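Design request, tokens follow.
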């Protein structure tokens, strides 16, 4: 499925103030499913902070110099491994560890106050994908039992009000905005490629034998895509592996997000929807939103 266009109403560009830490509601959950013998999905939900801690000084009252922990970014990641139970799980784990390490070491890129940082930031995300890809390949070389392992990777980083997305494969990132569900990523599958080139009607994509054949993956042929968007108050982000979208329609996802009470509640409800629909694959759901206290 191709990503939906973002709404073009100029009014939505008013992003509001940056949410405080206690106003950020994040949660992730993964499930093996009802058919698979193991879970090859992995996810990570974290916040990047800037701190100053005084180790040694001759000054009195050094605590006044310490900077309270300032959030630089909220980060959510989902990876869905392929290549056999052990290899797929190892690939998705290695991918998340590698990209998380790269992001942490590149914290200077995550200052949203300066618009000039946008180009450097997107470049850093492309480099993160490359570092992640090399890490998975190297892991496969060191351990023959993992040869051929690969994984999808969908990463969202919010440096309020900017949202950056790094995407490889067919896991997805959705946004619920003002009652509209928007798919922000494009499935990197052979079926989607055929639709994009006009060789396959869009309404036949789910029935295509190429629907689950990846055209891009970390550890395989990789074509990372980086997107940049602007967040506004009330936006909800959802990252998921295809174990959710195989069984839960966009309309059902939208209804769940519209009625959500908390990120944990809606994440667990969506996983249960996937299990109720057949649970033929591992399923992972990560949800994030800001709930401002006015």
């Amino acid at each position: 499925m191709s990503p939906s266009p973002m709404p073009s109403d100029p009014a939505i560009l008013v992003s509001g103030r940056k949410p405080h830490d206690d106003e950020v509601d994040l949660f992730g959950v993964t499930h093996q499913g009802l058919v698979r013998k193991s879970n090859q999905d992995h996810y990570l939900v974290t916040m990047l902070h800037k701190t100053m801690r005084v180790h040694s000084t001759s000054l009195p009252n050094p605590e006044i110099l310490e900077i309270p922990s300032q959030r630089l970014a909220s980060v959510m990641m989902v990876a869905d491994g392929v290549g056999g139970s052990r290899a797929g799980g190892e690939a998705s784990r290695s991918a998340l560890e590698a990209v998380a390490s790269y992001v942490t070491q590149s914290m200077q890129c995550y200052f949203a106050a300066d618009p000039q940082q946008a180009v450097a930031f997107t470049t850093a995300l492309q480099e993160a994908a490359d570092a992640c890809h090399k890490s998975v390949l190297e892991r496969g070389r060191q351990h023959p039992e993992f040869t051929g392992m690969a994984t999808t990777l969908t990463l969202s980083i919010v440096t309020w009000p900017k949202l950056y997305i790094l995407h490889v494969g067919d896991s997805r990132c959705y946004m619920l905005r003002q009652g509209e569900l928007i798919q922000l990523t494009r499935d990197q599958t052979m079926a989607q490629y055929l639709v994009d080139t006009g060789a396959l009607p869009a309404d036949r994509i789910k029935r295509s034998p190429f629907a689950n054949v990846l055209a891009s993956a970390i550890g395989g042929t990789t074509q990372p895509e980086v997107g940049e968007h602007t967040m506004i108050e009330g936006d909800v982000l959802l990252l998921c592996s295809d174990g959710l979208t195989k069984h839960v329609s966009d309309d059902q996802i939208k209804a769940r997000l519209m009625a959500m009470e908390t990120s944990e509640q809606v994440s667990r409800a969506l996983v249960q929807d996937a299990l109720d629909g057949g649970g033929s694959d591992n399923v992972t759901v990560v949800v994030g939103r800001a709930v401002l206290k006015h």
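Comment from the thread starter after seeing the answer: thanks! DSSP finds six helices and eleven strands in the chain.
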